[in-house]
Amino acid sequence: MFKNGLNHFKTKSTFWIFGCFYLLFTLFTFRDYGITDDEYDCYIGGAYHLKHYYHHTTLDEYNLFTDDKATHNYIYPALLHILTLLNAEKLHLFNMLLALFIYWAAYQVLQAAYEKPWWALLGPFFIFITFRFSGDVPANPKDAPFAIFYFFTLAMIYLSREKNKNPLGESLFLGSLIGWTTAIRAIGLTVFPLLIFYRFYEAISESKAQRQKLDVKAWFSREWRGFLAAFIISQFWLMALWPYLGSNYFGNLPNIFLLAKSFPWGGPILFMGQRISTLNLPWTYLPLYLLITLPLFILLFFFISLIFFKPKAQTKEAKLYVLFASALILNILMYLVLKPVIYNALRHYLFLVPLICVMGTMGLIEFFTTNKFRAAKGILAGFIILNIFLVLLELFHLYPYQYAYFNELVGGFKGATGRFEQDYWSASDREAVLWLRNNEATDLNKTYRVKISGTPWQSLYYFGPNMQGDPNMRNPDYEITQELPANIGNTKPSIQLLHTVEREGVPLCYVLKYKH
Q1: Between these two residues, 3 and 158, which has the higher pLDDT value?
Q2: Domain range summary for the chain, segments of one domain joined by +
Q3: Would you say 18 and 103 are in contact if contact means Cβ atoms under 8 Å apart?
């Protein structure tokens, strides 16, 4: 009994080695992240969402503001609105704290599968140093929360049957998680078929372990009530949390999936050195971005993991791998078949990144804990250490824009210049405004007129009391922009380049001065 208690304490305390590190990282960095392009719309949408529940606005008024009501829901920004009113730093802090759920879940599933706390600790660490995910978390209140809930729900599917022996309690718990996940993004509903598939796979594995043939009819007669209860509970949560669905569930549910497939924005984006409309992106867009934005050692061990795990295996680690692999395969197949409109690199498929990270972690654990490949272990251990060092060096170089990380396959961040989108959210506006405020707009008795780009809140939030800004300002004194005018120096009034926000020699944002 004492030994079991000691092992339990060791298991819990090991995670908090990472947890304490992440909390310290969060507390020291949350103030440094710039506001992203569509953050304001999310948080204001959350405010209207909350007013709807307070009956301070009608459904028509809510729908008028949230014109993308069939493709986005604002329940998470609504919860943030309760905690703070448009304080960017606090909003970023809460977003980062939410990520503790995914780090904890990654640790728990790996610990349950391997019963090796120190190996399990690699899961949250690898997700953290995958900056395409962790760098997105502070200022992305749409895709990052969905990725966190999606992963957490899958993790609970893996853990719940072992932890919860009550079938009704399991249905209530998982149905609620599926409902909350789907309320953030409709694609969360894919968790439900994954639940059914995984429970069926579990049953087959257990039957094989007992050298018996599964009685499918008997299995279904035991499970169908639980599946039905979980689905009904998830849909009740969905109607409660999404006013668009709650107002007309059967009429509006098809619109959510139809519009999610063909999101209407069709602007040009930079891909492979060309400006291409989002409506005409090749199918290689998502696979290529996964290849060039994830750390190389994670990609390597993700592919190595395919060697170790066979669907016919009955081990706990094989079951976890099958669950995550089936989620990855299902969503990749849906991407290839439905051809949805996506842009901004991995943003819309950010929820796949933690799955790949944990599958890569499992490949690494299997590789280093088996007796095979002894000669290669030392070489790959050196490669992992070197690659992790280079990835962390990129954090130092790119911070706080590490969400735009590129790996060595394209020559890193600098090598991606002119070929792929980098600071596509204009998060560097904050740094440009603060430079202007501290170096030029220093006379409190004078008013400085600044032309800004992007969403006004991105820049105006950091303005001093003696600064005025507008995207359409005529005759400004200064301008903050992501694109340098082609005729700079040859205009009347002339334009002077005062400052460039850059990382690794790559310009992200410019501060211009107009000489009238």
Answers
A1: 158
A2: 2-33+100-263+272-395, 429-515
A3: yes
